[in-house]
Amino acid sequence: MTTDLKIIECVPNFSEGSDMGIIKEITDVIESVDGVTLLDVDPGKDTNRTVVTFVGEPEPVCEAAYLSIKKASELIDMSKHKGEHPRMGATDVCPLVPVSGITMEETVVYARKLAERVGSSLGIPVYCYEDAAFKEERRNLANCRSGEYEGLKKRLADPAWKPDFGPAAFNARSGATAVGARDFLVAFNVNLNTTSTRRANAIAFDVRERGRPKREGGSLTGKIVKDNDGKPVMIPGSLKAVKAIGWFIEEYGVAQISMNLTNISITPVHIAFDEVCRKADSRGVRVTGSELVGLVPLKAMLDAGRYFLRKQKRSLGVSDSELIKIAVRSMGLDEISEFNPNEKIIEYVMESREGKKLSSMTLEEFMNETASESPAPGGGSVSSYIGALGVALGTMVANLSSHKRGWDERWEEFSEWAVKGKEIQEALLRLVDEDTAAFNRIISAFGLPKGSDEEKAVRAREIEEATRYAAYVPFKIMETAYDAFEVVKAMARMGNPASVSDAGVGAIAIRTAIRGAFLNVRINAADIEEADFVNDLLKRGEEILKDSLREEEEILGEVDRKIEKGE
Fold this sequence. Notes:
This protein is of the alpha+beta class and 567 residues long. The chain has three domains: 7-181, Formiminotransferase-cyclodeaminase, Chain B, domain 1, CATH 3.30.990.10; 186-350, Alpha-Beta Plaits; 359-565, Up-down Bundle (Four Helix Bundle (Hemerythrin (Met), subunit A)). 52% of the residues lie in helices and 14% in strands. The protein has 17 helices and 13 strands. Helix 2 (58-75) runs parallel beside helix 3 (104-122). 45% of the residues are buried.
């Protein structure tokens, strides 16, 4: 998966867990929004509550969240609700979670906008919690929900608990809703070679942030030490933002450390795994594997793969699929059940449900799609792909060099070059799809109605903007491909001499990509009315093309000299 989109997750909890008809009506409005992928629907009869998970770019996700809250307010009557789980509204909570390409600060802005819209348009009292909270005492969801639905009328009458948005009036049917922004929570279990819950708990207390109660004399059975308020004094564990407990899983016949990683930017999955391994070993217990419950962001798996490769002093500039394999093997994520990235990684689940992209096709599929009667993919997409192959050759030389016998001390140097090459590869792969999307945007613009003068003006404006975009994308391909010369040149000069010809082929491919992309800049620019934009784009493109010819000649000169000398 190669994406630089901003992706957020939304996990609303609705106060209905039995009537599947109501639940389906709610999830139907979520799925009606283009750009949103419904990942999971988890109803609970005893709690009378359903947890729904969906993802996408921020704007469509917020639209789907609003529509689902609106639909729940129409279908669920809180005055008749009974359930085991704490709750205060038809939509009890609605957190937004940054997944990739977006910061928590940006997510907070979206959460507060959603909260304001729900409060003003639906007349539902809304409290903002976690990172979206306006007041410190409202960060904790339990504080916002204290008294639950039954105590809501009294709470709303208290000026200290005036909602952040919406009326400070009791809405008997819908109750109140908490809208928040929080970090991604990962449920992660580590398997042990023991059946002892007691030993598993001891390890859990070693690592969890809360730790264990302090006892007199430092013994395991001594009296618990309490503070002046009568509360136990705790000895903190070694991992921040981690909750953990030990238990025995009869189905698997093993004890586990069950953890909630509440902020994987503080304690990532791989750090939690390694720390449990250390604490288990100190207690004579061995970790045999682990499992991830639910979905996980792609970044978490890639970071884990890089972490374990770094420990092995191996190059980090390998494919995402290889990084994921390393992570799975290193943490034994497939010990209990198969770890299928297409079912466990959020971005991959999204991609599989959105349909296959050009960059995800096999070589044969891409070739046949290019040769088909459809005008897209065309020269721009093909140029970008050629550029990706060119820099991939440079990345390959870097990876081979990092493992060359006798060059062990230079592994990190070459790893850095491989990582840089991989980043450029991925950018060019994204542009393969972006170039085709740009062409499709032009087709859509020409399909707009042109009856009235206003419609004609809108159509003309959309065609102009789409054409500008279609000219700019191949220019981005030129810029991105040009950056790849640095990697290929470095590998031609100091990489594994046995692979110097590969660096040369890479240079030829990169220059070809730039020249091909410039042809697409020129042909699309011919239809753009704004002369200044066109002149600037063509001037900059000609400069890149000229510089690329010089870079290619310089690299090929280096390659020829080394081949002739037999270096």
